[in-house]
Design brief:
about 325 residues, D-Maltodextrin-Binding Protein, domain 2, alpha/beta, two-stranded antiparallel ribbon, disordered N terminus, single chain
Length: about 325
């Protein structure tokens, strides 16, 4: 599955002196975050595993910091067959399969373990069924993490404090509407544009996991961090559907298994960051508050009915799968 512009140098095995040369394959991986981010910890582990297990037949090249484009651009590159791998959250893919936006309604998941259970079960299979007709191959899931709110204007001690804050969100409909229901003036924007937008006052703040907040140095432009925990998001690790068939079956298995194995390392890094970065952010001068999550969850709860009204049984099926994966009382 590799014919990637500069890399998928799938050199057809050539017979020389009765011997066939092994195919050489290059896989490009594009991300929008910094090199130390948990996503790229996963990408580097994927790189290591694939190159080791293929005995060097596959060369993996990781491009961080939106070098290959923003998330939307890279998904389109997958669909057109000019990039092998990137990942986006399930809701972000709602631009191509709208019902997936349902998965980014606030407070659907109790915690990260709830999300892991859900995507390891029927929900993960259903997501694959929905995304793969759009020109991609779903290989597995990385953890995007639990999102919290930051801003430059005021401390958020209660839901009312969010009212009117201009907060950047990804371009995902129900993600944006979650912030609106929380009281924010939600503004969609690409991640790589965000720091400058906050620095210039185009937006007051944003919402992201602690790892994003720290690695992107958002503490330099936002003084206030509210531990809202309003969304736990999951990345779909996607391969170009057009290029997937260019890989041998052996290489496909190596790539698929490396995604599953690297996900464990990537999730461990997310957990480490969640455990350690709060004190680091406080040391950088951020004021940390803990607003009432139950009140915020009640504010966004109507979005479940909105999604069912918009998408009918397709949305209800996704919500039922999430609810079925809740921990037993």
């Amino acid at each position: 599955m590799k014919h990637f512009t500069s890399t998928l140098a799938l050199m057809a095995a050539t017979a020389i002196g009765g011997q066939a040369l092994a195919q050489d394959v290059t896989i490009k991986v594009g991300t929008v975050v910094s090199g130390d981010h948990p996503e790229n910890v996963g990408a580097r582990e994927f790189e290591r595993l694939v190159e080791e297990r293929s005995n060097g037949e596959i060369d993996v090249r990781v491009f961080t910091d939106a070098q290959l484009g923003n998330q939307r651009e890279m998904v389109e590159q997958l669909r057109s067959g000019t990039l092998e791998i990137t990942w986006v959250t399930t809701g972000f893919f709602g631009s191509w399969e709208p019902v997936l936006g349902t998965l980014e309604i606030g407070y659907l998941f109790e915690d990260r373990e709830h999300a892991f259970r859900a995507f390891a079960g029927p929900l993960g299979d259903k997501v694959a069924e929905l995304v793969e007709p759009q020109g991609v191959e779903l290989l597995g899931f990385y953890e995007a993490g639990m999102r919290h709110l930051t801003n430059s204007q005021r401390a958020v001690n209660a839901p009312d404090d969010i009212e009117g804050l201009k907060i950047r969100t990804p371009r995902a409909t129900y993600h944006l509407r979650t912030l609106e229901m929380m009281g924010a003036n939600a503004t969609p924007m690409a991640f790589n544009e965000l720091y400058t937008a906050m620095e210039q006052g185009v937006v007051d703040g944003q919402e992201n996991p602690l790892s994003n907040i720290y690695n992107a140095a958002f503490y330099e432009v936002n003084d206030h961090l509210a531990l809202t925990g309003h969304l736990h998001l999951t990345h779909m690790v996607l391969y170009s559907g057009e290029l997937w068939g260019d890989l041998s079956e052996e290489h496909q298995e190596i790539v698929r298994q490396a995604v599953l194995d690297s996900a464990e390392v990537q999730r461990a890094k997310v957990a480490e960051d969640d455990a350690n970065l709060l004190s680091e952010l406080e040391a950088k001068g951020m004021q940390v508050t803990r607003p009432d999550r139950e009140a915020l969850a009640a504010a966004v709860a109507p979005l479940r009915d909105d999604a069912v009204e918009e998408f009918g049984d397709a949305a209800q099926e996704l919500l039922d799968m999430i609810d079925a994966a809740r921990a037993a009382n």
